[in-house]
Structures are given as C-alpha cells and as structure tokens.
Amino acid sequence: MRIAGNLFADLPQVVEGEVFEDLLRCRNLQIERIVSSDSPDSGQYDQTQDEWVCLLQGEATLWIAGEEVTLRAGDYRFIPARTSHRVLKTSREPCCLWLAVHLYPERPPFS
What we know:
By secondary structure, the protein is mainly beta. It is built from no helices and eight strands. It has strands at residues 18-26, 29-36, 50-57, 59-64, 67-72, 76-79, 85-90, 96-103.
C-alpha cells in the first residue's frame, strides 16, 4: 500500500495482460492502479464486490452485461457486483491507465 504518490509515476512497461497495483486497502475498500497492454486478458469477471473504474489515459472497449462500452481518458463507469464484464480492446499509445475502486459487501478477501 502506498501512503502518497502519483498515479502517472513509474508506469510499468506491460507487454501482455495487465499489471494491478494496490494503492489502498482499508476495511471493505480497495483502490488499485491498473496498467493495460494492448493485449489485455480477455477473461470474464463476475465479482462479489461493486467496482467503479476510471480510465485516466488511453482508450478501451469493455463488454459489460452484453453491451459494448467505449471509454476514453476521463470516462468512468460503475459496475455493480455480479455484473459480468471483460476488457475487449485497449490502446497501445498511450497505454491504458485505470483507477479502480472496489467496494466489498462486508469482509473482503484481503482483510
């Protein structure tokens, strides 16, 4: 966990998939920075927690509950718990940089 920092500092060079970095874990809240390559993991998510995600740079196409959604820098989306979703496409230049906020119902797996 980081106490202070800059979301754009020390971005990893991601060749394939995504890199997830916890910025904060507190009670039932998790905030993470995600850096995506242009070949993201296409696995489908169906999470127990609510997720709010903001794309800070780049462009991405998501599939959320049967709908394709395009996000550009500054766009955000709330994804309720148990909503199937996945990343379909992400930009190469600039790479996709995300801020994700997870709100767990009660006791998260990391406590």
